Structure formats: structure tokens, C-alpha cells
Amino acid sequence: MAGRERKQTDLDKGIVIPDDCLGYPLDLFTFPKHYSEDLECVYIPHGVIKDRIERLARNIMDDLGDHDIVVLCVLKGGYQFCADLVDCIKVLCRNSNKTLPMRVDFIRLKSYLNDQSTQDLHIEGAENLSVLSGKNVLIVEAIVDTGKTMKTLLDHVEAFKPKMIKVAGLLVKRVSSGTGYLPDYVGFEIPNRFVVGYALDYNEYFRDLNHICVISDRGKQKYKI
Ligand code: HPA
Ligand code: MG
């Protein structure tokens, strides 16, 4: 592709979804009927999410293979990404000469009400993070927006003196108020819109949706608290 070569840094953001992306009409896909009025479009189809995770797993394996790691899954939104990522790494371990022994741990962060971020961040399950001392840690997070939450979490984890910390973020939001923080492994860079599905919620709804979708105004009203 003469004149169209990509710089390596372009790949660091993963698949970039532009601001003018309209997504796909819902009727081109299947999704739970109970959400038929609540979504605007499909932004990232489930199959594309899975394909991208397969490649992230390979990148992680290339970098960390033959180390021991502790996977730190950030709940609740990160559970599906973490499960699929760990599954892909398991397949790679079975089918290659490299291996990646993994422990999986969970923490829970809370900072959102409706579609707005609140100032206070609560970390639950952080009591036993002393197991991270001297370990290689892979933090698995579904979405990074301003980067402030991740910065707070990294400070917290660093206090336990791990040997190394890497972060895998499925989605990174392009927000003007962002810190510019970019995870080591990024699935997709998305516009600053509120998305749901693939375990991402709006007030606990929509986790039972496979695709990553944009919520409609009606959906926001219906599930508002
Ligand atoms: N959707 C769900 N949860 C979130 C989002 C989002 O767009 N941004 C931060 N947390
Ligand atoms: Mg949430």
C-alpha cells in the first residue's frame, strides 16, 4: 500500500470508530426483544468484538508468554471481556509452545450514576491485593474514558509493589477532558457516546446484550434512577 502505510502508533488505539459513525441498524442483527425501543444502533457487533479480543490475546501472549500473571478483572463491566480474553489465551496456550500461567482475581469499581461519572471512586475487593506483590499484573477493564479512574486504580495497585503492570482496555472513549491515558492493549477507540452491551450497563440494564450498542433517549429515560 504505497503512501498508505500505518504508523505503529495508529495501531495502539485499536480499531478507531470515527465520530460520524452511525453504527448499524438494529434490524440487521438479533438482540433481546425487551430492548427493542431502547437502542439507537449497533456500534460494534459481537463477532467483531470477539475477533478483536482474539488478536489482543495474541499480542498479550507475545509480550508476556512464559511469565506468570495475575489477571485483575474490573467488575462488573469487565467480566465478559475478561472471560473471553482468558478463554482466547487458554486456546493459544494449548496450541503453542509458549505458556502463560494465570491467576484470576476480581475487584469492583463504582463511579457512575445514570450516564454520568461521579467524583468518588469506590474499590471493592481491594483488601486482598497484597497477593499482587512481586507479580506481573494484567488489569482487564471494559472501558476507559477520562482515564482518571484507571489512574486512581493504577496508583492503588502500584502500592502493592507488583513486578509489572499492564492494562487491557476493550474500549477507550475519545473525551476532551481525558488525561490522554492509553492502556497497553486497546480493543477499540470510540466516540464520546454512552454505550451499553457486552457487560457494559446503564443502571445495571443491558449487560444481557451481546453487541456494543448506543442507548436511545427513550432507553435512558426508561432505566433512569
Ligand atoms: N457505558 C457504560 N459504562 C460506562 C461508559 C459507557 O459508555 N463509560 C464509562 N462507563
Ligand atoms: Mg456501569
**Number of E-type strands:** 10
Give the fraction of residues assigned to helices.
Answer: 25-40%
Poorly predicted spans: none
Radius of gyration: 18 Å
Bound molecules: hypoxanthine, magnesium ion
Strand line-up across the major sheet: 1-8-7-6-3-4-5
- The sequence of SSEs as H and E is HEEHEHEEEHEEEEH
Shape: globular
Structural class: alpha/beta
Q: Report the sheet-strand fraction.
A: 25-35%
| Count of DSSP H/I helices | 5
Query: In angstroms, what separates the terminal alpha carbons?
Result: 51 Å
Average predicted confidence as pLDDT: 91
The major β-sheet equals: 7 strands, mixed
What does this structure look like?
The chain is an alpha/beta fold and 225 residues long. It has five helices and ten strands; from the N terminus they run αββαβαβββαββββα. β3 (69-75), α3 and β4 form a beta-alpha-beta unit. The longest helix has 19 residues, at 46-64. It binds hypoxanthine (HPA) and magnesium ion. Magnesium ion is lined by residues 77, 112, 201. Keywords: Cytoplasm, Glycosyltransferase, Magnesium, Metal-binding, Nucleotide-binding, Purine salvage, Transferase. Pfam families: Pribosyltran.
